[in-house]
Amino acid sequence: MQHRFLFCLFLICNFGIYAQTVTIIDEETNVPIELVTLTSGTKLYTTTNSEGQADVSKFKDAEIIEIRSLGYKTIVKSFHELTTDSFLLLLKPSNLNLDEVVISASKWRRSSDDVPAKVISISPREVAIQNTQTAADLLAISGKVFIQKSQQGGGSPMIRGFSTSRLLYSVDGVRMNTAIFRSGNLQNVISLDPFAIENTEVVFGPGSVVYGSDAVGGVMSFQTLTPQFSLTDSPLIRGKANTRYSSANNEKTGHFDVNVGFKKWSFLTSISAWDYDNLRQGSHGLDDYIKDYYVQRQNNVDVVITQEDELLQIPTAYSQLNMMQKIRFQPNEKWDFQFGFHYSETSPYGRYDRHQRVKNGTARYAEWDYGPQIWMMNNLGIGYNESNFIFDQMNIRLAHQWFEESRIDRGFNQPDRNISEEEVSAYSINADFIKATSNRNTVFYGLEYVLNDVKSVGEITDITTGITEAGPARYPKSTWQSIAAYVTDEFKMTDRFTLSAGARYNQILLDSEFDTTFYPFPFTEAKLNNGALTGSLGCVYRPSGSWVFSTNLGTAFRAPNVDDVGKVFDSAPGQVVVPNPDLKPEYAYNVDLGVAKVFGDVVKIDITGYYTHLKNSMLRRDYQLNGQDSIMFQGEMSKVQAIQNSAVANIYGVQFGLELKLPKGFGFHTDFNFQKGEEELENGETSRMRHAAPFFGTSRLNYRKDKLSMEFNVVFNGKKDFEDMPDGEKSKKEIYALDENGNIYSPAWYTLNFKSLYKLSKTIDVSGGIENLTDQRYRPFASGISGAGRNFILALTAHF
């Protein structure tokens, strides 16, 4: 106790001299806590910097200041009490809180006390000990988001039976979804840098009232590092450097970020680089997942090479570079200007699931790769904080994003290399406002405009002659626009009961021009003009500090985008998808019911049940082009299909969480997810939903004491028999295991993993662990690549 007293006395002497600057530290470790949120009503909030400090002068005379941080018990103080405490606070660690500060549900900082939707947060502390390689892996550590992969350079989140273009990604408040987000699996989330993410939140269920089209199954909101100001006359210079090695893919990673803050200006720079070799799968498991060959071009001939190590998945190697620059200017307490520049680029990488396809007893493709995936964003945020008749706070956000991707394929010993290149320029303007009309009523409202400009070109190169000619493009030249307004009202009927209701009107316009040079489409353009009205109604009831009941009714929609209306591609051997200009939006109707209970600050149980009905679902089905049900595509007669509004789908499930606070610094946490989804087929029968994952979850036993954190966990995935497989998956024998009847199925699997982090000093952390201790060979449901075998991880982090 004496060392704690001396430490606190030191803090008081050194930090207390700065009037009205609060310092918040961990009660057990005496380490300053970053990103603690202090709020008072809807008008006042601030967060602590890397030194655990925040200027609280604007809270003067506040009677209630709520102080929250993920992983700590919430406390409430008045400004007078902060003064009495010499502006020094100690927070007690606790993972059993029923409330935390969330932003994603409304775009404003709110207590989860008042949010009827289920929202989870993933903290940087969790990411640090897990050493996630990509942002997709970061989402997976929540235990509530399932990740599908078709190649190592990928990761497609699946939430409550939905995936891809039915989920919405938000980065620093900017919509990441574009008009070419497809219904197939996506890998755009890997463009984000896990080292540069300050906080991640996932909203489960419809989010269309706040986010518009595509927010059907949920919203994934990523907040990147925020530039911090100095609270003294000296500059605040803080940063970190990371390096990491992983054995399963020979990972070599480096990261560096630095914050230079003055009283009114702050600058933050971040750069990360990754290099991954081919991924090695486990040695114990089914032989169905082994592909012991790869194709190499030798003497102008494609040759099948037998691998020395059959467990290597070739080709899966790739590299990536991410950069971020932020500038923040706060001339006074009213205005806050933030500019952010983001850039991400991958190397080309193989689409491993396609490399497993065979034809006539040998490899079907000599090449099937994604070209470099590039994402760039310029984002300007303008915040204004002063009450008037219209709002208490205003946030205007202007953003421009650039997306570039390409696909390269060539058949085995075929001369023609097909290349399609896509570019999307996305512009967006958001204006969001918050107004407290009384002590118990708060209104959130806003306007949004989004414009996507889509360009797509195709080329065919004869590799024997080197001659390149124009080829068919994947998409038509298109513009996609969204114009919207929304409002949400939050009313605290009592201190224990909060009612929330919202509505949004969205107008979507799509204009496409088709090139009929290569395909004789019976149309040359598609023009869609669709309106959509969505709403939500929910409530939160807290009969006591240890009980929470919540329910939420919501609708959501997804308007047809350019990928739905206009793409041309081969979905499977002998099948080709063609445009359909007659699509209309699909709508989802959802109900959630949740309950959470804390027993004696020792046990926490959290259960949420949900049901979603999807109407006018857009699905790929058989089609005719100019009266023909088959056409020649890339030299092969292929059945014609198109995306069509012709289905109804129903999804229901349960999310269950249990946390135990054990003695001596131990804790236990487990998550189980059960979901089931069915959709109508063309013949009136039903099929399982393609993106409804089998039973899955995570269980963790952790230990935290002083400078040491350790965790032993098990990640598990249930089985899907052939009868439970989606109808569209049953032809993909190359990526699934085969049962005794030769039918595909997805086996159950689990991995045992150990992670640890130790603070060698105030500036140096060492972390690492062993993943897949028993070296299992497994493949997550719907994935075209197996997970890593036994994987040794070692990482060093330097803080300065």
TrEMBL record:
CDD domains, A to Z: ligand_gated_channel
Keyword Lipid biosynthesis carried by entry: no
TonB-dependent receptor plug domain segment(s): 113-219
InterPro entries: Beta-barrel_TonB (IPR000531), Beta-barrel_TonB_sf (IPR036942), Plug_dom (IPR012910), Plug_dom_sf (IPR037066), TonB-dep_rcpt-like (IPR039426), TonB_rcpt_CS (IPR010917)
GO terms under cellular component: cell outer membrane
Keyword match Cell inner membrane: no
Alphabetical UniProt keywords: Cell outer membrane, Membrane, Receptor, Signal, TonB box, Transmembrane, Transmembrane beta strand, Transport
Topology of the protein relative to the lipid bilayer: Multi-pass membrane protein
Pfam families: Plug, TonB_dep_Rec_b-barrel
Molecular function terms from GO: siderophore uptake transmembrane transporter activity
Leader sequence residues: 1-19
SUPFAM superfamilies from the UniProt entry: Porins (SSF56935)
Protein's recorded name: Hemoglobin/transferrin/lactoferrin receptor protein
